[in-house]
């Protein structure tokens, strides 16, 4: 029987804006409080022996938000990456960022490199920041990369398994569990290829209120799921 602890948990962190609005605060306060939830889930993931925790922090579509909010989110992510290096090291955890990195600032890319390099030797949980990412963008860039690297014959004989090697998530197992907070029941252009057989978990809780306890509730629900992959069990 397969392990009941998912190897890879992924999260569409949603509801920061509504959380702030409910308190009469600016949306940015919701994003700030959301960083605390990321810390909490990371702690729980490390404790529970989860190998990969990926978090959807900023989509390609989120570039269309007001400039002030985009800048606020970028500043927050940069601050959090800088501040968390010691915590990653204490926990033997590793950090990587995946997405359309060319759209992000030089400072953002430099900060990503700093934390990625500093934590590269981490052997426990790998946290993956999905930033300036969208599933359709990923599939398209994979197709272009494969077309550029392969002969026509090899391109035409690509298998589903081989194709995964051209996605930005190459080498990372597909998510076992995808959590989305805030009551929205959609994928919002997240990992479209990689979630083919992912267990989906939707909760009404807004992201800033999603902490260790809520993370573990999602894991408990996952442990009851019967994953059949189209077979008869
Ligand atoms: C999630 O919260 C954070 C990002 C998408 C960057 P939102 O900012 O989408 O919050 P709501 O959905 O407006 O409440
Ligand atoms: C999805 O949330 C993107 C991230 C969590 C980064 P959105 O708030 O952008 O999604 P929609 O607009 O409700 O689909
Ligand atoms: Mg939202």
Summarize the structure.
The chain has 233 residues and is α/β, with parallel strands linked by helices.
Structure annotation, total helices: 8
- CATH class value: Alpha Beta
Mind telling me the C-alpha Rg?
Answer: 18 Å
**Number of domains as seen in the coordinates:** 1
CATH 2nd-level architecture: 3-Layer(aba) Sandwich
The strand count comes to: 6
What portion of the residues fall into strands of 2 or more residues? 5-15%
What does this structure look like?
This protein is of the alpha/beta class and 233 residues long. It has a single domain (8-134, 175-224), classed as Undecaprenyl pyrophosphate synthetase. 44% of the residues lie in helices and 15% in strands. The chain has helices at residues 16-22, 27-47, 67-90, 106-119, 135-149, 152-156, 160-163, 212-224; strands spanning 8-12, 52-59, 94-98, 126-133, 177-180, 199-202. α1 (16-22) packs across α2, α2 runs parallel beside α3 and α3 (67-90) runs parallel beside α4 (106-119). The longest helix has 24 residues, at 67-90. The N and C termini lie close together (11 Å). The mean pLDDT is 97. One 3-methylbut-3-enyl trihydrogen diphosphate binds next to β2. One 3-methylbut-3-enyl trihydrogen diphosphate is lined by residues 13-18, 58, 62, 73, 182, 207.
């Amino acid at each position: 029987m397969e392990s009941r602890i998912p190897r890879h948990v992924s999260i569409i962190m949603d509801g920061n804006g509504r959380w702030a609005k409910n308190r009469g605060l600016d949306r940015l306060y919701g994003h700030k409080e959301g960083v605390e939830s990321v810390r909490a889930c990371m702690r729980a993931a490390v404790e529970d022996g989860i190998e990969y925790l990926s978090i959807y922090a900023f989509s390609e579509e989120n570039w269309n938000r007001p400039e002030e909010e985009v800048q606020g989110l970028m500043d927050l992510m940069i601050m959090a990456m800088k501040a968390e290096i010691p915590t990653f090291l204490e926990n033997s955890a590793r950090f990587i960022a995946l997405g359309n990195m060319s759209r992000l600032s030089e400072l953002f890319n430099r900060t990503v490199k700093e934390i990625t390099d500093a934590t590269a030797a981490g052997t426990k949980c790998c946290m993956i920041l999905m930033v300036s990412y969208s599933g359709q963008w990923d599939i398209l860039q994979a197709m272009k990369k494969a077309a550029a690297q392969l002969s026509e014959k090899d391109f035409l004989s690509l298998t589903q398994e081989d194709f995964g090697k051209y996605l930005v998530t190459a080498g990372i197992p597909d998510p076992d569990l995808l959590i989305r907070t805030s009551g929205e029941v959609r994928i919002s252009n997240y990992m479209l290829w990689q979630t083919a057989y992912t267990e989906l978990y939707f909760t009404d809780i807004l992201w800033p209120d999603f902490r260790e306890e809520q993370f573990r509730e999602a894991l408990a629900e996952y442990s009851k799921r019967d994953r059949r992959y189209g077979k008869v069990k």
